[in-house]
Every structure is written in C-alpha cells, then in structure tokens.
Amino acid sequence: MTTASDPVPVDPRLLEILVCPVSKGRLTYDRERNELVSPQAGLAFPIRDGIPIMLPDEARQIG
Asked: For a disulfide at 20, which of 34, 38, 45, 58, Cβ 3.0-4.6 Å?
C-alpha cells in the first residue's frame, strides 16, 4: 500500500519520452514533491499513483 509519504515511482522510460504539453521542452523529475517540472513553461505537473497528470489546468505554477 502506498501513502502520501511513499509515492509510486515513475517509470524512467516514461520520463525519457514525455515532454511538457505547453513548451514541448524537457521535463525534470522532482522526487521530493513527486512532480514533473517544466522550467521553460514555469509549471510542475503532479504525479498521482505513478501516473503523470500532464494537463496544464492541473499543473502548479513555479517561480
């Protein structure tokens, strides 16, 4: 069973092929926050149950 403090890891192969839906740029994985970060777009996309939620409406603005 997975808890909020024990997130499901993202498949590294998936990280190699995903790009930001806004900027089409590369994403980096923030393990601490369990997010995929797009520095170009200034967005962080959440990962829920090991699945990246790549919807701009679901993303968090980063500074």
From this structure: 38
pTM, entire model? 0.83
Q: pLDDT of 2-35, one tens digit each? A: 455 567 777 888 888 999 999 999 999 999 999 9
CA-to-CA separations, 5 to 38, 44, 50, 54, 63, in angstroms, rounded? 23, 18, 13, 22, 24
Which domains, ranges and CATH numbers included, belong to the chain?
12-61 (2.20.25.10)
Cα Rg for the chain, rounded, in angstroms?
Answer: 11
- Tracing tokens 């403090």 back to the chain, one arrives at 5
Give the per-residue pLDDT at 18: 94
